[in-house]
Specification:
alpha/beta, single chain, eight-stranded mixed β-sheet, 10 helices, Rossmann fold, 267 residues
Length: 267
Amino acid sequence: MHSELRAADDTKLVLEVTGDGPPVVFVHGSNGGLDSWAAVGQHLAGYRIVRYARRNHPPSAIGNTPNSFDAEAADLRCVLNSVAESFGSTAHIVGGSYGATVALYAAAVDADRIASLALFEPPLLLSGAHLLPVLDRFRQFCAERRYPEALEVFARDVACVPAEVISATPITLPDEEAGCTITVSAGADLEAMAGDGQDVDRWATITLPVLLMQGGQSWSPLPEGMDRLAQVLPHAQRVVWPDQSHFATAMAPERVAEALQEFFATV
């Protein structure tokens, strides 16, 4: 069932709620949307699945610029408030990649409506002011409607995807309209990352139960960021899938759901 919310700045957010039981709110990563966590949710039994499209990701609306993690965390708190009003309970939050950073921001400000955090590889050591010239190149490609090149810049210089992975999966777009839509989403995430820093110690104030999930084949500096996060979070446990990478949530959704199911049972 789709529904709409209005964020604090009146940006429209679109949600989909399925199932019954304690609520689990999923926060997708870059260039994701309502369907990003659908496969994991299908394998998760006994929970109410709440998925929303982040601002700047259709069918949610485009937000104010420049984008920021503060704005996205406020959106997540808006979703949590709606869940509490509708179902009368706190919610587990599951965040993937960029969405995991959003979850950290939300929990650090106000954890009252959060039962636990499950985080898959937040790109904590990829953010920072070094991305400002990357953002300029990205915007120039978009202005020239060279959308595949803009997305390659994002993959190579923002996400640090290895060259062999990029060359093995060339970026193709169905049409110019799709390219424009996707680069608007990616550009908003890039704005927030360029305005953020790499201070992992700030998350030490989060005292919630936390599950850290990662792939054993994920590229640097994702594993280093997970190591640092595990050190500073006081109540974190960890699961690593040795044969998976940063795409584990899409490639092995049943294993991700199994880890979540076991974690939620302990909270």
